[in-house]
Amino acid sequence: MNYSKQRELILNTLKENVVHPTAEYLYEILKENNPNLSLGTVYRNLNQLAENGTIKKIEGLENSSHFDHNTHEHFHFICDKCKRVFDISVNIAPDIALKTEKETGFIVKGYDIAIHGICNECKNK
Fold this sequence. Notes:
Elements: H1 5-16, H2 23-30, H3 39-52, E1 56-58, E2 66-68, E3 74-79, E4 85-89, H4 96-104, E5 114-117, H5 120-123
Parallel strand pairs: 3-5
Antiparallel strand pairs: 1-2, 3-4
């Protein structure tokens, strides 16, 4: 993937906003200082970064995809009330890929696990 100043700006903004934002969320932040940037450019660059493995694209949370700069193995907890996405350590289910392979005979190449519930902030309201 060739270098792009816009792509670098989008990636850096994603890293600064660790809330697993949507493209629309990032666009709202970016357009303040970059009025010539289009939502299409944000989408295109985020998708290219995800295809390249630089970031993760998280689908199935809402109508819009969310993006995660953390590419290390981890799970996601999604709050059903506020819709925020939290990273969860793989230590809560160690060896899940190995256990899946042993039980099924499948070859696991990767996984995206989303746990749904109510976050502490919403629980305490």
